[in-house]
Amino acid sequence: MPRPGSCCATGRHEARDRTTVGPMWQMMDLLYGHKKEMVASADALPGRDRYPYPLAREHLVLGTDMLGPDSPVDPRPWPAGHEEIILAGGCFWGIERIAWQVPGVHTTSSGYAGGFTPHPTYEEVFSAKTGHTEAVRVIYSGGEETLRALLTQFWEQHDPTTANRQGNDVGTEYRSAVYWTSPAQGEVVRSSARRYQQALDEAGRGTISTELLPLAAAGNGVYYTAEAEQQQFLAKHPTGYCNHGFNGVACSL
Fold first, then answer.
1. What CATH number did the domain enclosing 50 receive?
2. What pTM, to 2 d.p., does this model score?
3. Does residue 8 carry a catalytic annotation?
4. Is residue 4 included in any domain, yes or no?
5. Cα 15 to Cα 226: distance, rounded to the nearest angstrom
6. Interstrand relation of 165-166 and 133-140 (parallel, antiparallel or unpaired)
7. Residue 45's CB: how many other CB atoms inside 10 A?
8. What is the pLDDT of residues 145-196, one digit of tens each?
9. Choice among 7, 91, 242, 251 that is catalytic
10. Could you give the number of structural domains in the chain?
């Protein structure tokens, strides 16, 4: 299922060979370059005070609760000892599939974060008029060990140097971001970014553009769960569009 404003599903990471994809990048910038400008909070779509769509609760792959205390119908606490972090690196379908395979991950969900529009829809986020990025919420146990494993996969499986785009996906909704929910997580995230930048420098690659913030300081500070059809999309459609894959620079945390 190709995404609007994207190339067809290829199963590879478009950023691997820029000499090949350069003309395609130029075309996508011509068509969607205006979406790379972050909308001002005053100009963002107004949104609404509740979800305009029903939410899926059970994780298709892990069988766990995706909503926890955020359920508008039956809020439940996350299991004791678990932590929450938000990862964004382009299309949330691929980032979610990467995250749910990491040992120690209790549940994941695709959603929207970092912007201003309350309870946005997929179409609104795609317009780049909400300020949100396509994001994945990860609930995990195992503390720093699991977090480092997640960050290793996060840095390696997308290109964090391309601001407001991932491959042929162009716009602020595809920006790279990590939003943490505790100061301890923030220290690990910032340290991992510094170490990965060193690896990128040694490989002759660019500068990390990933937005690194506490979730509370990212846009309106809220993560919104996406529509049911967006959840675990690549488990439902194994050959569906995904431009994630090893970017050529190993991450050692």
1. 3.30.1060.10
2. 0.89
3. no
4. no
5. 26
6. unpaired
7. 19
8. 999 999 999 999 999 999 999 988 999 999 999 999 999 999 999 999 999 9
9. 91
10. 1
